[in-house]
Amino acid sequence: MELIEWKDFERVELRAGTVLEVFDFPEARRPAYKIKVDFGEFGIRMTSAQITKHYTKEELIGRQIVGVVNFPKKQIGKFMSEFLLTGFHDENGEVLITTVDKKVPNGTKLC
């Protein structure tokens, strides 16, 4: 494990956002959703995520997630991802998303 300085951690913009809409992403190589999230002052952003094993589109709507909003945009096929949805791999390698357990204002920075 490589140790980092506090200033390195402070540069990562891990922000809370609320899922507004979730769409199927049939063009993805592995099953995935396109997700639209409101990050408050950081705007509404889209990403894709391979989270179809643990989540339905309906249960994601309104949920607060944690995303990295200061990565450059990334082209994923014909889709442009605007943030990184964070999560953890379970024992089968499927992603469990990082969520907020009590509501905070959209755009709140993880500290």
Structural description of this entry:
- Residues 8-111 form the TRNA-binding domain.
- With 111 residues, this protein is mostly beta strands.
- The chain has a single domain, classed as OB fold (Dihydrolipoamide Acetyltransferase, E2P).
- The protein contains two helices and nine strands; from the N terminus they run αβββαββββββ.
- Strands 3-2-1-4-7 form a five-stranded antiparallel sheet.
- β5 (74-76) and β6 (79-81) form a beta hairpin.
- The protein is globular, with a radius of gyration of 14 Å.
- The relative contact order is 0.27.
Labels describing this entry:
mainly beta, globular, OB fold (Dihydrolipoamide Acetyltransferase, E2P), 38% strand, five-stranded antiparallel β-sheet, 2 helices, 111 residues, single chain, two-stranded antiparallel sheet, 9% helix, RNA-binding
List the helices and strands and how they pair.
Elements lengths: L5 H6 L2 E11 L8 E6 L5 E6 L7 H4 L3 E5 L5 E3 L2 E3 L2 E2 L1 E3 L5 E3 L14
Antiparallel strand pairs: 1-2, 1-4, 2-3, 4-7, 5-6, 8-9
Short synopsis of the structure:
The chain has 111 residues and is mainly beta.
State the major sheet.
5 strands, antiparallel
Tell me what the CATH architecture is: Beta Barrel
Helical content class = under 10%
Rounded mean pLDDT is: 96
Query: Order of strands in the sheet with the most strands?
Result: 3-2-1-4-7
